[in-house]
User: Which sequence fits this backbone?
């Protein structure tokens, strides 16, 4: 007999739907590891390279992916791609949430807005950002955060285009890059490690020992899913504020 727990044993278990790039190899294992009271179900959108053109083409399949997740009776849907949900600035992120929510018939969140909601809940004003992205996407992320009212003190990118190469990074890589960013901007109140394919959750607590709030794309998305589902966040890393229905226009 298998020693593994039966994920269907608890009939009240929440089901989280995630719409992810086809080349994302991090969302599902990170979510499954850090959330013990819900199951994770993914639908994939075609993406090989993390570029503006690639993200644009990928977004065309978002609604169909959400509709497929509705077949599994998920309790909520996340568009789990940071640059994919901010690449066209404000309005595009909220539109994604509306479109996916309508398609799946359940609450929907998009990672870029999830990050903003968590920043607001943390009273973030000045942020240091570490990403794996190429320069064009870094500048779009900087503009998005600037327009959201956050002072981006420093933004460092690794210049990686192939998404599977991003997925091969490790939490140790994230820690090294994040600490280097903090060295150049010691007066920030929040550190943000961007990209849902960048493994980060295992080093959140260690980074928080530097005396800053730590936000990562996957942490923010999970926190925001808890806002719309009542998911227990006690097992998540970091010192998270209560996800008590923050709202954004």
Assistant:
């Amino acid at each position: 007999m298998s020693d593994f727990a039966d994920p269907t044993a608890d009939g009240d278990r929440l089901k989280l739907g995630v719409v992810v790039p086809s080349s994302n190899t991090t969302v599902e294992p990170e979510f499954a590891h850090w959330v013990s009271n819900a199951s994770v179900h993914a639908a994939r959108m075609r993406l090989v390279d993390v570029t503006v053109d690639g993200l644009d083409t990928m977004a065309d399949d978002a609604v169909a992916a959400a509709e497929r997740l509705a077949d599994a009776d998920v309790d909520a849907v996340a568009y789990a791609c940071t640059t994919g949900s901010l690449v066209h600035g404000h309005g595009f992120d909220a539109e994604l949430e509306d479109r996916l929510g309508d398609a799946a018939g359940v609450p929907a969140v998009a990672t870029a807005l999830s990050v903003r909601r968590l920043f607001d809940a943390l009273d973030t004003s000045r942020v240091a950002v570490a990403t794996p992205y190429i320069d064009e996407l870094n500048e779009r992320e900087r503009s998005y955060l600037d327009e959201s009212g956050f002072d981006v003190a420093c933004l460092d990118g690794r210049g990686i285009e192939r998404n599977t190469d991003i997925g091969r990074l490790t939490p140790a890589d994230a820690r090294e890059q994040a600490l280097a960013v903090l060295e150049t901007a010691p007066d920030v109140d929040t550190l943000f490690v961007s990209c849902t394919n960048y493994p980060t959750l295992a080093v959140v607590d260690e980074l928080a020992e530097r005396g800053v709030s730590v936000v990562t794309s996957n942490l923010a998305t999970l926190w925001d899913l808890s806002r719309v589902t009542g998911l227990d966040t006690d097992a998540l890393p970091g010192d998270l504020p209560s996800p008590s229905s923050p709202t954004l226009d």
Strands lie at 14-21, 38-45, 76-79, 108-110, 126-131, 151-157, 190-193, 213-216.
